[in-house]
Amino acid sequence: MEERIVREIRVSDYPGIYLLNLDFNPALHVFTEEQVKQRIEMITKNTKDRIFVCEQNDELIGYIHGSPYELLFSESVVNVLGFVVKEAYRKQGVGSMLLAHLEQWGRSNGFSGMKLLSHPSRIQAHRLYEKSGYLFTKDQKNYMKKL
C-alpha cells in the first residue's frame, strides 16, 4: 500500500476537492470547481476553520472540515462541517486518520470535544463514528431558508 499523508488543505487542491464532493453526491456538480477554489481561499484566509486532506500518490482521497463551535451554554467544541472519503478508499482507515488528525488539532487548541451531524441513511459512517468513540446524542430536524 502506498503511503498516505494527512496535511492542511491548499488552494491548489480545489480540483480534487470538487471530485470528492461529486463522489459523495453527484448533485453537488452545481457548485463549480471555481466556486470550490474561491471557498477554499475564503475559508483559509478569513476563518479559524481547519481543513485537512488525505493524499495518496498525489491524489486526494478524503478531506475533513472542522470549525470552532462557540456557544453561550457549553464548552467550545470543533464542529465537523464536511467529511468525505472517496468511495474506493472507504473502510481502509482513511476516515479514521482524518478524524484523528482533526481531533488532535482540537485538543492542541483547547477544544473540549467534537460535534458532527450525519444523515440517518449513512450507516457505515455511523459505525466509524461509534468505533472512534463518538456517542449518538439526538435526532433532530434541520431547517433552512433561502435568502
From TrEMBL:
PROSITE patterns the record matches: GNAT
Protein's name according to its UniProt entry: Histone acetyltransferase
Gene3D superfamilies registered for this protein in UniProt: 3.40.630.30
Ranges of residues in domain N-acetyltransferase: 4-147
A GO molecular-function annotation: acyltransferase activity, transferring groups other than amino-acyl groups
Pfam family, one: Acetyltransf_1
Superkingdom to which the source organism belongs: Bacteria
InterPro entries according to UniProt: Acyl_CoA_acyltransferase, GNAT_dom, YpeA/RimI_acetyltransf
Keyword vocabulary terms for this entry: Acyltransferase, Transferase
